[in-house]
Each structure stands twice: as C-alpha cells, then as structure tokens.
Amino acid sequence: xxxxxxxxxxxxxxxxxxxxxxxxxxxxxxxxxxxxxxxxxxxxxxxxxxxxxxxxxxxxxxxxxxxxxxxxxxxxxxxxxxxxxxxxxxxxxxxxxxxxxxxxxxxxxxxxxxxxxxxxxxxxxxxxxxxxxxxxxxxxxxxxxxxxxxxxxxxxxxxxxxxxxxxxxxxxxxxxxxxxxxxxxxxxxxxxxxxxxxxxxxxxxxxxxxxxxxxxxxxxxxxxxxxxxxxxxxxxxxxxxxxxxxxxxxxxxxxxxxxxxxxxxxxxxxxxxxxxxxxxxxxxxxxxxxxxxxxxxxxxxxxxxxxxxxxxxxxxxxxxxxxxxxxxxxxxxxxxxxxxxxxxxxxxxxxxxxxxxxxxxxxxxxxxxxxxxxxxxxxxxxxxxxxxxxxxxxxxxxxxxxxxxxxxxxxxxxxxxxxxxxxxxxxxxxxxxxxxxxxxxxxxxxxxxxxxxxxxxxxxxxxxxxxxxxxxxxxxxxxxxxxxxxxxxxxxxxxxxxxxxxxxxxxxxxxxxxxxxxxxxxxxxxxxxxxxxxxxxxxxxxxxxxxxxxxxxxxxxxxxxxxxxxxxxxxxxxxxxxxxxxxxxxxxxxxxxxxxxxxxxxxxxxxxxxxxxxxxxxxxxxxxxxxxxxxxxxxxxxxxxxxxxxxxxxxxxxxxxxxxxxxxxxxxxxxxxxxxxxxxxxxxxxxxxxxxxxxxxxxxxxxxxxxxxxxxxxxxxxxxxxxxxxxxxxxxxxxxxxxxxxxxxxxxxxxxxxxxxxxxxxxxxxxxxxxxxxxxxxxxxxxxxxxxxxxxxxxxxxxxxxxxxxxxxxxxxxxxxxxxxxxxxxxxxxxxxxxxxxxxxxxxxxxxxxxxxxxxxxxxxxxxxxxxxxxxxxxxxxxxxxxxxxxxxxxxxxxxxxxxxxxxxxxxxxxxxxxxxxxxxxxxxxxxxxxxxxxxxxxxxxxxxxxxxxxxxxxxxxxxxxxxxxxxxxxxxxxxxxxxxxxxxxxxxxxxxxxxxxxxxxxxxxxxxxxxxxxxxxxxxxxxxxxxxxxxxxxxxxxxxxxxxxxxxxxxxxxxxxxxxxxxxxxxxxxxxxxxxxxxxxxxxxxxxxxxxxxxxxxxxxxxxxxxxxxxxxxxxxxxxxxxxxxxxxxxxxxxxxxxxxxxxxxxxxxxxxxxxxxxxxxxxxxxxxxxxxxxxxxxxxxxxxxxxxxxxxxxxxxxxxxxxxxxxxxxxxxxxxxxxxxxxxxxxxxxxxxxxxxxxxxxxxxxxxxxxxxxxxxxxxxxxxxxxxxxxxxxxxxxxxxxxxxxxxxxxxxxxxxxxxxxxxxxxxxxxxxxxxxxxxxxxxxxxxxxxxxxxxxxxxxxxxxxxxxxxxxxxxxxxxxxxxxxxxxxxxxxxxxxxxxxxxxxxxxxxxxxxxxxxxxxxxxxxxxxxxxxxxxxxxxxxxxxxxxxxxxxxxxxxxxxxxxxxxxxxxxxxxxxxxxxxxxxxxxxxxxxxxxxxxxxxxxxxxxxxxxxxxxxxxxxxxx
Length: 1507
Description:
Layout: E1 3-4, E2 7-8, H1 15-28, E3 31-32, E4 35-36, E5 47-53, E6 69-71, E7 79-85, E8 92-99, E9 102-109, E10 124-133, E11 139-149, E12 157-158, E13 162-168, E14 176-179, E15 182-183, E16 193-197, E17 204-206, E18 212-215, E19 226-235, H2 236-240, E20 248-257, E21 265-270, E22 281-288, E23 298-305, E24 312-315, E25 323-328, E26 341-349, E27 360-364, E28 375-376, E29 380-386, E30 394-397, E31 400-401, E32 409-411, E33 420-422, E34 428-431, E35 442-449, E36 456-464, E37 472-473, E38 477-483, E39 491-494, E40 497-498, E41 508-513, E42 520-522, E43 528-531, E44 543-552, E45 560-570, E46 578-579, E47 581-589, E48 597-600, E49 603-604, E50 613-618, E51 625-627, E52 633-636, E53 649-657, E54 666-673, E55 683-686, H3 689-711, E56 725-726, E57 733-737, E58 745-748, E59 751-752, E60 762-768, E61 775-777, E62 783-786, E63 797-806, E64 813-823, E65 831-832, E66 837-842, E67 850-853, E68 856-857, E69 867-871, E70 878-880, E71 886-889, E72 900-909, E73 918-928, E74 936-937, E75 941-947, E76 955-958, E77 961-962, ...
Parallel strand pairs: 5-11, 13-20, 29-36, 38-45, 47-54, 57-64, 66-73, 75-82, 83-89, 91-99, 92-99, 100-106, 108-115
Antiparallel strand pairs: 1-2, 3-4, 6-9, 7-10, 8-9, 10-11, 12-15, 14-18, 16-19, 17-18, 19-20, 21-22, 22-25, 23-26, 24-25, 26-27, 28-31, 30-34, 32-35, 33-34, 35-36, 37-40, 39-43, 41-44, 42-43, 44-45, 46-49, 47-55, 48-52, 50-53, 51-52, 53-54, 56-59, 58-62, 60-63, 61-62, 63-64, 65-68, 67-71, 69-72, ...
C-alpha cells in the first residue's frame, strides 16, 4: 500500500473500512473464559475482585473497587447476567443495572433460608458469570473472585491451660521464665488479644501480646518458694465493642529454688620476688564466684598438690575480697629445686551443695637466675688469612656463651699453635710469626678454657695464597743457531719457567724485554721464540742477544724474572752478483791494437764478498773480443784491420757469477770508427751497488753497537733497598668515644716505602698494647677500627704498637706508638631500684598529695649520670617531681571513671649530646571507692508509646540506671514522684512501670511521669530524677464503613464549560462518631481521572479541564469516601458524567485533498468524485451542504449540495487545453452559528486520442553533398512530428510510403531519421513521402514530403572549421513545445555551406563524471541525444526540441554536435539543462529544484576546471 504526501494514493479504502479493521483487531484481544466474545460485547475485565463480610444479612451486595459489567456498544441491547458456576451452595445472585452506556453486574447475597457466609469455613468464592443479550446471539463470560471478610465472632483459647516452671532464687531481673500461648481463629485485628494477670502481681509481668512471663522483682526463697499465677486472654475486639468477657484462663505455677549454680574460679598472677624482700610473695590468687549470698562466699583456698614439704602457704592479705597471696613458710633451698615448684590450687564456696573449683596449676619459678649451659659460640671456627700476614694480624675471636667471670682462653700446645697466640682474657687469636703456604696451607688449633670443663673449640686457619714467589727459569741462559734463510714464523727455541705460587699467582706469561726492534717474537703462554720477519745476514747482526722475561699473574703486583737468550745467524749464499755499471757504450778506432784494454766490467756479491767470475754470453761469436773472467777487463783479441768484418757495431752481453747465482746480464755496445778516437769514449750507467753495500754494512755495525749497549743494562728495581716509614701525619695520641660501634673506623694510618713492587708494598699490624682486643688494623689499608666494644669504665687508656712491614726480600719494618684515650659516653641507662611499684589511695585524695617516691641510678659520669623523672603515660591525674621522683596527685580522681592507673615512669639521664639513656618502670595506682556517684538513668529520659486498650498490670517501661559505686553505694531503689492519681506504679527494685488503671486516648493522650532513683550509700545516699513521657496511641475503634445510598449516580455538563464548573454532589454516611465518622472524598479511578476534581469535604464534583464532546462524549469516575479512623475504612461509588454537545466544530472531509480523474470530452452528468464529510457535532452532522467556491469559472463541473457528488456539465473537457482543474469545495454545517471547511479537489483530465501527429512543415528541402560508397548508411535528414495527445496516443512511428521504390533509403521508425543505403552522385534528386502514425485507438496519421538535392561536394576550405564556443550550455523548460528552438551553435567560417548533426555524447562521457548525488535519479553519466529528444537543423545549426520533455525522467543532456563542409569535420559539446514548467504537478517540486540546483553547482565546477 503506497502512501504519498499524507493521503491514500490511488483509490484507497474509505475511512469506514479502516475503522472496521481497527475494531476487528481490538476484538481479537478480548478473551473470556469460553473463548472469544463477539465484536463489542465483552466484560471490561476478564476477572474481578470483590469482598463481602461473613455473616452478612440477605440482599447484601458485594463490594468491588472496579466497575463490573459490559459497556453497551449498542444501547438497545437487553443484557442478562447469570452465575453459571462457583456458587454450589447458592449464596449469591447476579443482577444487571444499566446506567447510560454501561450495564453493571451486581452480585448480592440471597435472602430467605439461605445459609450464612462463614469465613472460617470458606473464605473465597470464584464465580463464573455469563452475560448475554436477549434476542441476539451475543454472549460473554467473566470471573468474579469474592473474598469473604472476617468478623470478630470467635474468642481466643489457651493451649495448654496449665503451665509449671522452676527458677533459681538468683534469677536476674527481666529474665523470661515462661510463655503462655493462646489462639484466636479470627484474622487481622479480630484475632488480636491481650494477656494479663487476673490478680495484681508485683514480682512478675506478662507481655500483653507475646505471653512471655518475666521476672520483675527480687526473689527470696526464705519468704516464698512458690507462686500460683492466673493469666487471662482478652479479645481486643470484644473490648472495643464493649464486651469485657474473658475467653479463657491459664494457670502458671512458679517454683523458686535456691541453687548454687556456679563453682569458684581461680585466677593467678605469678611474681618473682626480690632477694631483699623479707616476706617474699610468689603469686597473687583471686577467687571469683558468680553466686550470691552464701553460695558466692569462698570458704577456703588450699594447696592440694605439689608441695610435699609444705614450703608454701596461702594468706588472705589482698586489698580485695577473696584475694590471697602465696608465701613461703621458711627459707627455701632453691639450689635443690633449680626448676621451681608446680603447685596445684583448689577453692570451695559456702554454698549448698558446696562446689569446688577446677584445680589450678601454678608454676613457682626459682628466684635465682636459671642456669644456662655454657658453650662456645661455635663448635668449630673456619677462618682464612692472607699469606702475607705479618705477626699480630687478627685471626678470630673465640667466646664462651654465656661467658663466665674470670674465664681464660688457651691454645692447646701443638706444632701449629706455635704460629699463633691467643689473648687469654678476650679470646682473640692473632698470628705469632710469618706464614708460608709453601710450607703449610692449613693450621688446626684447639682452644680450651679454665672454666669450660671439657669444652673445646676447633679453629681451622686456611692460608690464602699470596704472590710471594718469583718465576724461576729452568736454565741460567739460552742460545740457538739459525740460518738466515728460515721462513717467517720458524720456531728458534723454547724457554721455560716455573712459579711455586698457586692459581693466578703461579700462572706465567713470557715476553721479550728489549729496547731494540728484533726479528723475533715469543709466545706469551708457551715461551716458544720464533722469527717475525725474514733474516738477512748481510744487513743485520750476526747474533742477537736479548732478555726474555717471565711474569706471573699475581696481585697486587706481579713477580718477574729474566734470562739471557742468544741467537746466532748463519750466512747463506742467497744474493746474486750485481754490476756496478751497466749499459756501456763506446767507440774504438779500427786500428785498435790487439790485446788492448777496451774497458772493464765490475760486479759485487754481497754474500761474504766472494770472488766473481765474468763471462760473455753473446755478441762475440767471431771471437774478436776477450773478457778476463777474474778481473772483468775487456780486450781486443783479433785485429780489426783487414778482418773482413762488415759490421762496425758490436753488442756484447756479459754476465757475472759467484758460482751459484748469475747476475742480470749487462750490455756493452762497441762502435768501430776510422780515425783517431779519444780515450774516454766509453760511458756507462751507474747502478750504485757499492753504495748500497756500504749502507748495509753500516746498518749491521750500528745494530751490533745497540745490542752491546743493551747488554750493560742492570735491573735496579729488584732489590729491596728502603725500609717503610710512617707518614708525617701519624698522631701520637687519639681520642675515641666508648660508644663507638664495633667496626667503626678510628683513623687511617699512612706509611710509605720508596721501593717498587712488593719491595714497596706496606702491610700494617698491631704488635702490642691491644690487651683487651678492642682494636684491629686492616693489614692492607692501615685503617684502625674497633674490634670489640669499648668500655671506659673498664679501661680508659691504650698504648698501641703500630708496626708496618714491606713485602720485599729481605723484609723490612718500622713501628710507632699510638696512645688511644677512651672518652666517656652515655652508654649506661638509669636503673630503678625496683622492677615495679604499686600504691593504694582513696579516690577522694586531694590534689597535691604525695603518694610514692621512685628512685633510679646511672653509672655514667657528669651529666650522663644525672637522672630526671617524668610520667610517660598520658594522664592529668598524676605528676612526678623530676628531680626527687616523688609522685603526687595532680587532678581530681574518680574511681568510677577509672578504677586504677598503670603509669609508666621514665628515668632519663641528662646527656648534653647524643642519645640520652632512659629506663621505664610501671607504677600501679589503685583507687579505693567512695560513694560519690548518683544513679544515672540510661537513657536520661524515656519516651513510651502505649496502646490505649492495654490491660491493667501491663509493664509499659523498664527503667535502668547505672551507679558505678561499689557495695551499698551501687544499690538503687526507684519511686514515682507523680503517678496521675494512681494510674501508674513502679517496682522499687526492678524499675518496672505498670498500668494501674485503664487509659483512654480520647481523654488524655500524653502523661509525663517523674521518676526518682536513689542509692543506699552511707553516710549519705545520692539520688537522681528522670522523666518518662507516655504517649497514648489511639486504638482502631473504627467499627463502621462509610456507605453511599446508591452504588452509581449520573450527571451531565456542557462541553467547553469553564474549569471549576460544578457537575454534581455525592454524599456518603458513616455511623461512627468523632474522627472515625468524618469522611473525605477523592477521585482515584475512571476515564475522567484528571478531567474532574472533587471537594474533599462536600463531595461536589467540578470540571478540572476544558471538555470536548467530540473527543469524549462521557466519563466514568470512581469516587472514594474514606473516614479518618486509625485504620481508615472506605467505600466507592461510580459516577457517570455525560458531556452535552455544543456546535464548536467545522465539518471534516474524509481526505485532506482529492485526486479524481475524468476522460476529456466526457458527456454531461458523468460522476467525478463524491466528497465525504462529517461533523463531530452530533446536532449538525445531518445538515451538511456542499458547494464549489473556486476553480470552476467555465462551469465544467457541478456539485450536489446535499450529497457532495461532483459531475460533469455539458461543456466538454479538453486535456490539451487544460490537463488539471483545481476545485475548492466548501462544506458547511447547519448550526445556529454555521461553521464550514474547505477542501481541494484536483481533477486530472485523462487523454483521448483526438489529435493526429503533425509535422512542423509539410515539405522539407535539403541540399546534401554527393556521397560515395564509404558513407552509405549515414543519416541524411530527420523529419520528426509531434502529437498533442499523451501516452500511447502520442507515441509516433515513422515510415517511408512513397519515393523509395528502389530501396535507396530507410527511416528509423522511432526518431524519423532518414538514412541512405547507396551512394549518390551530384545532380541526383529524390522526393520521399514520410508518414507519421500514433499508437492511439483509433490510430491517426499525417504525411510530409522530403526533397533531397544531391550537389557536388564543395572544394576543401583552407580555413579549418571551428565552433565559436568549445562548449555550449542551454536551458529549456519541460513545458516547452516540440519544434521550439533551444539554441544555435555557430561555426567559422560561416560563408560556406555547412551541414550539422547531433552525433552522440561519447566524447563527453570520456571527459566528465556526473555525480548522481547532484541530480538524484533523473540524470545519467551516459551522454548523447537520449531518446532523440533534440534535433539540429541540417543547414543552420539550430537546436530544436524533437520530443516532449520530462524533467523527472531526465534533466541533463550532453550531446556532441558535428558540422561538416563536405570535407572537414568539427565537433563541439552541448549541455542541455531542463527546467520545470509552471504547469508541472507539485508532488515532486521541492526535491527536483534542490536536485537541479546541486547539479548545476557541480557541473559548473567541472566545466571551470576543464576550461
């Protein structure tokens, strides 16, 4: 179902059908017991709740808070109700009462001999009620759930009726001793009842609702040991109704028994007495017994086990009752009982029967210090010391724990003990001589004492290896021979050394110690010496002598040793001879004499200057020349004259050899000339071989000199020449505080040794003066530290011998004396003379009274030994004299606030600096009681709420007081100062306040009682006063429910009445008196809730809103009438209010706008549409009139004034002239003040095929250039027509009906475009008849002629064709007619024949992307002349509309226009924007305009970017 613009599209269902559908849907939801009720006929609820009292009289109607019944959808219905099930006994009858549009279901009790309702038998009835319409097949069912309400028709009953209980005489007040139980079959307030005693009872009280019996007075077995009590149960309802009859009575027998309930309990606090105590107390024993009287008194406490010699006894000497002390009968030999005694105590009371306490084990410890076994701190000591340690180095401290007085420590004689010594007083073991690990690395010592018996401690001293040995070579020197020809890396020899040290101290590395560069290297780990470069005997020394050093890896310094190594170099013939001169050239005359000396060659051999032999290799094949092999002289061997030698130039190749190696050949070129020649005609190039040889020899000589110099180097650093000496800053004395902690640094002693290495390494020791072993010096750093605690009180001065040693060989040393003075430190705290103090005083002791003196002493000197006293406990009650230690009262005391105080007394010395020492001792102050407190009420005042109908004798409040005084001062008695004429009474002992007379809320609501509590103190008793505010609570005496004379009333009010208009008054009655009979009205339910208000007092109902009858014709209200009782009772009445009509509404049509349609050319009285209207006002709905008030000036339409039917007139409608008619129809009612409304009727005129297609011209003439075969099939001309009809009636088809007999042409049936099939030559002429036929019924057609003249193709233009604009943008209205001009595209040059065509939009599609969001769904990225809507006039370039336009279908066209002069072609892009015409329907206008505006913006941006 399509909905458009808020109205039904097309011909939708009438409103009556829609209303019927809604009613049917609602009817489906109305379910009752036996299925689905018929439409509109059903109960307002499927289940109703109603109530009725038991024992109700006949014809009593049940009460329901909701309207029971059926709404009358048809006022003619005659409804009958019948109870179909649920009332087997026939108690009820269903009646029907019709008020306005509602048929009430009224259910009442039957009259006659029917049984009476009894809630105790059945309290609920579920009735099934059937409703039916007489004479019609309409039925409905509902359930009515009737609750039977209780009436107070039964009395409470006890079960059982006799009770018996036995209680102890000592039972505390307020203890619950028994509970009686009664039941009442009634429910709610009708089942409530009170318990109370039949006769007045003082010692007991009964709770009025729970029946719990409590003790409210002191029992005395001697006075009375049995009580017989009678308890009554009174129905509260009977009392309210004025009947004081008692339902039942129960008896309670209370037996009093004197019972010794509790056995004594023993609490013991042990105590270790001081030796100075004359009568030492070993424990304080307290006995408690919770019984009272003789049962709580203690007869005796005795030692029943653990004291066979009867050394101890118990005496009652404590400050408190039942406090005993354990003391000794005679002095005890505690040495015989070192672990003390285990005494067993037991107490017994004086009760009957007598009870004994559980035995209590008490351990009496020996006052002597317990013997602690003496043993060494450790059974074995394992220590390590450095091998370098000189005599006096600390090894370990051996101690006994605990250390006995006068103990002496000794070393058991042994070979190992000779290396150590022990301080017999302190147990400090030190070295006595130097230690060598090579001799022994572990020493076992045994320490014993003169007081340890067989106790011994084993001390294992491990020697940590020190680097005290030098590596030793296995040979005093090393030598080796090696040829100069060995390769690099050749192993020459290996050296080896050993070190007696261990670990890294004994690990050796090797190095060559030489100041000169050597062609050897040594492996630092293996000691292998190898060559590092090539050896050359000729340029280096013939032997190398250097030192190899062996170093260990020890610390802090390394030990090194050196050994001489000599390596001899062997010469090898490894050099070839070298000529001194080469490349010799010379001239001799042809008459040079035979044997004459021509020149001499010379070669040198570096190897040991061996003799060189010379030889001519080539160039002397004729034997003309002779070379002396030894001297190298070249001579002429044969005469050159008449020799016949043609060659005048000779080249001799000469070499030299040392017997193994040959020299590189040299050349001697000899030229023979005629004539005289100078003697210096030979020249050679110098090779400087001799100079190089001299340089090598010089280098070798220098190397030998360096080696000889190195041989004279001596190690001046291996000799220990200097003894160590102390730094100038060494002090002669130093002051240390005795509280310096163990390990604290005193000073650092500095000493130096000018030697290097171990010869200059200094170690420190204390060789004497450390008798108390209080000091230790770090062997390495010289830092002097505290080894054992200093005590000035024991030793004030030490003279220490500080000795320093070097580690050279031989070892040297030096010593100095250092005086150490121990300064006093505050290391002793004050000590109290007693471990604790205690004192007893009266709580009334006056301020400033001295109660005790404490004393403490301090062993320190000066201010460190002066003591000041203070109280550490945060208290204002006591203070102490800081100098004397006297404690005195500083503020008022109150035992009841605090019975005893434990004060912490501090004794602190007055040290000026550092931490002050202090001691703390507890001081217990016990306060003895004085009767100084009045009883205090808890709480200070009381507020009690009491129901007015409570029975006499009920306890309404229990008073409670607190009196912290002891004895009689803490015993309280109560009394009433005012009892309101005996209406209240109080128990003197328990403080229970009882009712003596009945209360009446209506007479007095509040009572303010004054009560007094007084103790029994002597000589003066104290008292206090409190107030008890008793509020009387009203009891529900609301007996009668309000009622209305009728169950429903009817009223009316005109619509639009002002707010506050009085409608009607409802009045209810209540037979109660006073507040219970006062009625308050309220509206709590109904359809008019919120529309009406009611006066709470008068019951007058007013309008609370402006009423509209057309919205709601009537209202139902549920009015409540509620009384002001404690438990309010209420009744309800249903009020029906009818709203009377006023003509205040104009008629309303069924549609907001009508869209009928009618065919054009329709005859007279054709129905167009009927306007349906109704008036919400009931009085004018039948008097509506209709008339056309505008839009019908030519009277095409007429309307029936009564029915609203619009019909055609005799005037014919023409769609082509006007497609839509807008009629305004006015509907008026017939009221006294008529009201009217208007509605628009848009009549659409439907098309009839009454127009034939029309060509714009009857004859079309066109000249076209001749065509060859290549252009066959191209368009020639478009002859289009238009039809004023629409739809199928305007759809045109084209055909060629004449002039195409030979089939040269064909036409597009949709567009009318004529195209060619063959070629055409100039001079041809064709005439075609084109027919246009529409698709209407019947069809209509028309024809036009097309004359085509084929002309000769124009000559090519030298000027290219160009459009005046690259892009054209035109806008048209969709209402523009076919053939109307859109625009003109112009081309240059314009003075030649041109032909235009629209060829499509491919070029545009390639250049642009049109956003769909810009134009909605009526534009496309596809280009071209979509649907051939436009055409270009062939010869002028005018763009015209070829088909009717529709902007909703397409609003943008992008077309390519092509122009040709017969040879050249040009194209341009044309954009066609389509706008709306003014006659366009308004159903899509806003969306269309928005789309068009957005698209124009987007496309303008695109064009700007392109241009």
